[in-house]
Design a protein that fits this description.
The chain is of the alpha/beta class. The protein folds into 2 domains: 238 residues, Type I PLP-dependent aspartate aminotransferase-like (Major domain) (Aspartate Aminotransferase, domain 2, 3-Layer(aba) Sandwich); 125 residues, Aspartate Aminotransferase, domain 1 (Alpha-Beta Complex), CATH 3.90.1150.10. Helix content is 37%, strand content 14%. The protein contains 12 helices and 13 strands. Strand 6 and strand 7 form a beta hairpin. The chain is globular.
Length: 380
Amino acid sequence: MTRRVLAESVPFTDLAAMTRDVRAAIEQAWAILLDSSRFVGGEAVEDFEQKWASYCGVSEAVGVASGTDALLLTLMALGIGAGDEVIVPANTFVASAEAVVLAGATPAFADVSPDTLLLTPAQLEAAITPRTAAVIVVHLYGQMPDMEALTLSASRAGIVLIEDAAQAHGASWCGRRAGSIGRVGCFSFYPAKNLGAFGDAGAVVTADAELAGRIRSLRDHGRSRLSRYDHEFIGVNSRLDGLQAAVLNAKLPWLDAWTEARRSIAARYRAAFGGGVGRLVEEEPGSRGAYHLAVARIPDRAGVERQLAETGIETQIHYPVPCHLQTPYRRFATRPLPVTEESANDILSLPMFPHMSDDRVTRVCDAISQALGAQDSSVV
């Protein structure tokens, strides 16, 4: 009897491949750290903060325990809390709204563009009220919206623009890196991110030295810089540890090459869709996405998802339940959000990691073409 040989599966991501690139450097850095015993803060953290600030094109970076804490500490440092509203795109990971609620403020959900699934100036302006103190512009999937227009809208309204760049390491808008355009940029270094630690970690970047100083104090129980026993603010414990900083220092030199690999894969995916019924989420003109995720909009998502799975291709959905429809946040959904709700039914995230082989990319492209009834996959 002849046995059918199944093709190699295509995982959604492959963190082990990224680790292999940097393992030797990490082991060396950890050995130095173990000898120094500087496990919280210390030289490794300070080194990463300096390098990350330079990479993002700002003067200040503050390492914290997670991307969620980066947002929360930013709101705390800005004095945003009870009585304030913060505009948040409804199409986002829940942490964007969670940080607002934890700060004591109210999230005001706004809809997104049907093309990019990101916030637009018109949607921002429609959500502004007399209570609006800030807007969190989310660079979801590693894509950036029209930052020039959003900055102008926020400035006219007198509100603070905060960049949630948790998925946008290395993305840029008209040559300016994610995190450098708003008053503050907030990053997550969760292991699966384009620049990921070996656990939870995050950072805030800004050109405002005074604001950075407040965040440094707030992340460390509100301590004064002059004395560890004097506390100027009610803070939290959200310090970046040296082990995670050592990992990030080892990975940072690889980030640009990894990002270019992601962009190349995304371009092949985009070509595979052609002019058919499905399409990859669009990039805003002026944006260079980092492609943390390769998200497509597919009318018959369930059917395509099933066909890809049958050929060993793993996919995911980011996110199947919109933020404003999650139980704790329904009370904040005060306006229609049709694009967010419609897109939640047809978005599908395709395999995306910088070490995907050409053969694996071709397999995904061919499977997409076949599932959508495209004519000739050779165009990819």
